Amino acid sequence: MKYAVIEEHSKRHSVRSLCRVLDVKYSTYYAFRRRPSSMRSREDLALRQHIRSLHDSHRHALGAVKTWRLLNASGVVCGKHRVARLRKIEAIEAKRKAKFRVMKAHQHTEPPAPDLLKRAFTVTAPNKVWVSDITTIHTSEGWLHLAIVLDLFARRIVGWAMNQCQDASLPIAALRMAYAQRKPEPGLICHTDQGSVYGSKLYRGVLDERGLRASMSRRGNCHDNAVAESWFSTLKNELTRHTMYPTRAIAIAEISSFIELYYNQRRPHQTLRYLSPMEVEKKYLTPN
């Protein structure tokens, strides 16, 4: 370990000084330097490069277990504890998620819909249950509101919309995008919280026109819509919480790219056995 410290700091300090501070004989250190590196140390060096590359390409959000899973899936076979040890050497830490905040329910223009989902978050096929929610993103121009529609089967974002105003047109735009892309059969459940925009006549009318069934969480209970809440936590942890966007337009471009090019296509999901949403859907559509 002392030799590694000397190696790391030798460009800024003399080797003799470092050896003296660390109580290492100068001749012993250079004898160590002349020895050929072991196979294990060469493997560790290559593995550290793989780990660093994964960490960077996944927005610094992977923990040790996801890193280990992805390495093995790509053919780089190694142990879980070895990955954890090398991540520590590389000083790699995953971004930490913020906790849920329970939001107050709003007044409805329509009576709240019943809770058809009842926290049954595991679905056996696409286009059976969609969950929706709205969050806010801070920019230098002011707040930006984001509405999403998430298919519970593969946790894929199938519709989204962003605007500086939060009225019924926002979730309706996200719903229309999802419907145009997926063309679900009548009877699909659309689950939301009891936010006023989801209880509006306009939003309910769009559901009714398409034969979609409204479902709502119990009043003030965010865990009834936990998957949508969790997705927003992922977005903020991996993207928006670490950035102050100068304009809403830049935020819209970054968030759209995160959804389309990273989250849906590439991001491993623990619930999906470390596959991405699109990989899960592809396996469902082509089982053989």
Q: What can you tell me about this protein's structure?
A:
With 288 residues, the chain is α/β, with parallel strands linked by helices. The chain folds into 2 domains: 2-89, no CATH class; 129-285, Ribonuclease H-like superfamily/Ribonuclease H (Nucleotidyltransferase, domain 5), CATH 3.30.420.10. Helix content is 43%, strand content 13%. The protein contains 11 helices and 5 strands. It has helices at residues 2-9, 15-22, 26-34, 39-57, 64-73, 80-89, 169-182, 201-209, 226-238, 248-263, 277-285; strands at 129-139, 142-151, 156-163, 189-192, 213-216. Strands 3-2-1-4-5 form a 5-stranded mixed beta sheet, with helices on both faces. β1 (129-139) and β2 form a beta hairpin. α1 packs antiparallel against α2. Mean pLDDT is 87; it is low at 102-108.
The secondary-structure class comes to alpha/beta
DSSP helical segment count: 11
Q: What's the arrangement of strands in the largest beta sheet?
A: 3-2-1-4-5
Sequence stretches where pLDDT stays below 50 over 5 or more residues: 102-108
Q: Separation of termini?
A: 50 Å
Radius of gyration: 25 Å
- The CATH architecture name of the largest domain reads 2-Layer Sandwich
Q: Which H/E pattern describes the elements?
A: HHHHHHEEEHEHEHHH
Proportion of β residues? 5-15%
